[in-house]
Amino acid sequence: LSIRRQRQMCIRDRGAGIAVANGMSYGGAIRALTSNVADSFNIASRGLIKPGNIADLVIWEADPLEPSSMPEKVFINGVDMDLTTRSTRLRDRYIKNLDKPNTYRD
Q1: Are 58 and 67 in contact, with CB atoms under 8 Å apart?
Q2: From the CB of residue 38, how many other CB atoms can be counted at a distance below 10 Å?
Q3: Which of 5, 18, 22, 29 has its CA 20 to 30 A from that of 95?
Q4: In angstroms, rounded to a whole number, what is the distance separating the alpha carbons of residues 47 and 65?
């Protein structure tokens, strides 16, 4: 996923979380991010998890409306997307082999 796309998803999810904090039902917020969008654009094969639908799916590590939760898996058109970013590569580089100086780590 591109940085721009990730930022758009973050802003959208925060908006739904703010709506819940101000009285919208949790289920209503999730529908606003999924099936309501598909219905608005007349896309019959998306927005719901059911046999025959096109599989665009995000599996979250925690509550998807919580700003600090991150996606664990993303499937677009049924294809598992690589979530590796420069940030995650740097994080992994500097938390491994802590007994070695930074320049000698993988």
Answers
A1: no
A2: 18
A3: 5
A4: 17
Q: State in Å, rounded, how far the first CA of the chain is from the last one.
A: 24
pLDDT band of residue 67 (cuts 50, 70, 90) is confident
Amino acid at 88: T
The percent of the chain in helix, strand and coil, each rounded to the nearest 5, is 45, 10, 45
Please give the full DSSP string across 57-92, using - where no structure is assigned. Answer: EEEESS-TTSTT--EEEEEETTEEPP---HHHHHHH
Cα angle: 37, vertex 38, 44; to 5 degrees: 165
For residue 103, what pLDDT is reported? 66
Helix (H) or strand (E) holding 28: helix 26-33
Structural contact between residues 94 and 103, judged by C-beta atoms closer than 8 angstroms? no
Q: Specify the higher pLDDT residue, 104 or 44.
A: 44
Asked if the model's pLDDT at residue 27 lies above 70, the reply is: yes
- Average pLDDT rounded to a whole number, residues 10-39: 80
